Amino acid sequence: MSNSNQSNTSSKSIGAGLLVAFTASLCCITPVFATLAGIGGVASSFSWMEPFRPYLIGLTVLVLGFAWYQKLRPRTQEEIDCACEEDEKPSFWQSKKFLGLVTVFAVLMLAFPSYSGIFFPENSKADKVIVVKENDILNAELSVKGMTCTGCEHSVNAALNNSEGVIEVSSSFERGIVSVTFDQTKVSVDQLATNVEEATGYKVTEKKIIQRNADALTN
After folding, report:
1. For the chain, which residues make up each domain, given as ranges?
2. Among 101, 76, 79, 97, which residue's Cα sits nearest to residue 88?
3. Structurally, what CATH architecture does the domain formed by 120-218 represent?
């Protein structure tokens, strides 16, 4: 294989690796940036891609691994003897430095769910003095369809934390459950469900209100 063909193959592998890594992260990136941009209704647009994420991650590793192999493999005697090998100097886009930058970017994209929380401030309600009568406090569980990663959790938490009367929120994308503590004199569980759907695009399939006396009602 000539140096030109080898460089072209490596360049294609780099481009493919970059594209696949970005695609694999769309289901996690979209909820975060959609919420931050104030267009949370599109947060669930790529949630359908979550089942394919492990395969896309594997494909990214294979493609970038092949690109690195092309860069690092020893040249054959035929390639060394080829005059064009000595005359051609690869551009920055075909260099190991660029491949290294692409690899770092791909790793950051694939690991996005693990650090997506840095884009959201800590629960701002924790710094506020909220006066609530004990009898007015309710706990609710919302079953939310569409959450696929921690980025989705942060988006749902942000939507609820911005709702009046909400005291505490925690979400689990694995269980598809959001637990919220709120002041029933300021907001209803139906309004909380509506806020989640309007702000994120996810569907609330069930609402369970848990009163202080442990009695439960399912709506």
Report:
1. 3-114, 120-218
2. 79
3. 2-Layer Sandwich (3.30)
CB atoms within 10 A of CB 129: 5
Please report the pLDDT score of residue 166 as a whole number: 93
Beta carbons of 140 and 180 less than 8 angstroms apart:
yes
Q: Checking phi first, is residue 29 left (phi over 0); if not, alpha (psi -120 to 50) or beta?
A: alpha
Of the listed ranges 50-54, 117-121, 129-133, 200-204, the least confidently predicted one is 129-133
CA distances from 36 to 46, 50, 55, 167 (A): 17, 21, 28, 21
- The alpha carbon of residue 42 and the mean position of all alpha carbons in its chain are separated, in whole angstroms, by 13
d(CA 4, CA 9): 9
Task: Answer whether 211's CB lies under 8 Å from 138's CB.
Answer: yes
What is the reported pTM? Answer: 0.67
Side by side, the strands of the sheet bearing 137-145 are 166-172, 177-183, 137-145, 203-210, 216-218
Phi, psi angles (nearest 5°) of residue 165:
90, -10
Instruction: Let me know: does 200 contact 40? Beta carbons within 8 Å.
Output: yes
C-alpha to C-alpha distance for 141 and 210, rounded to whole angstroms: 8
For residue 148, give both structure tokens: 């696929």
Q: Please state, in angstroms and rounded to a whole number, the distance separating the CA atoms of residues 56 and 17.
A: 10
